[in-house]
Amino acid sequence: MAYTEMRIAAETKTAHVNNVSLFEYLDEARKKWYHYSILNGVESVVVHIGINYKREVFNQNKLVVRTTLARVGNTSYTLNQTIVNHLEELVVSAEVVLTTINRQTRTKVKVPQGIRSLLDRDSLIDFDKMVAKGNSAEIESGKN
Questions:
Q1: For 144, which of 49, 50, 130, 140 could close a Cys bridge (C-beta 3.0–4.6 Å)?
Q2: What are the two backbone dihedrals, phi and then psi, of residue 48, each rounded to the nearest 5 degrees?
Q3: What Rg value do the Cα atoms of the chain yield, rounded?
Q4: Keywords in UniProt for this one (predicted)?
Q5: Spatial separation of the C-alpha atoms in residues 94 and 134, rounded to whole Å
Q6: What's 24's DSSP letter?
């Protein structure tokens, strides 16, 4: 399945990273998905998040946040997110359901084809590269 990755070093003023910070890392990793939605003419809004905290994270731990498109419905889609540490141990897992809405009327709309087509891919998505190319056909089809 199509996915994005974000690499970070955990930061905190104490030794232990607070779970709220881990939640914020997940949100930060979704920002490219939000932007991609806007490029496809809709806005994506979180309607549900289920999260499981598995391991402690400490200051300056190297982390990878992976966001995978898991399912696409009529007006919503689901992202599975994980955070793993430098030892490849699962730190956090989350399931995030987003609904797509019209940016002007703020009403639900069908998930655009540009997002739907990502479900058929099995590779890392480079949204920045897709946008930099400026090819709206590629953006709409989800190809890069």
A1: 130
A2: -160, 140
A3: 16
A4: Hydrolase
A5: 32
A6: H
Q: What is the pLDDT of residues 13-50, one digit of tens each?
A: 888 899 999 999 999 999 999 999 999 999 999 999 99
Q: What is d(CA 144, CA 137) in angstroms, rounded to the nearest whole number? A: 10
The CA distances from residue 89 to 11, 14, 27, 59, in Å, are 18, 21, 20, 16
Q: How far is it, in rounded angstroms, from Cα 10 to Cα 41?
A: 34
- 46's CB contacts (< 8 A; 6+ apart) are 30, 96, 97, 98
CA distance 131 to 100: 20
Phi, psi dihedral angles at 25 (to 5 degrees): -60, -40
pTM, to two decimals: 0.85
* Distance, CA of 80 to CA of 89 (rounded, Å): 16
Asked if residues 112 and 40 have their Cβ atoms less than 8 Å apart, the reply is yes
What does the block give as tokens for 49?
Answer: 């998040």
Q: By the 8 A CB rule, do 23 and 53 touch?
A: no
- For tokens 């920002």, name the residue: 31
> What CATH number has the domain bearing residue 60?
3.10.129.10
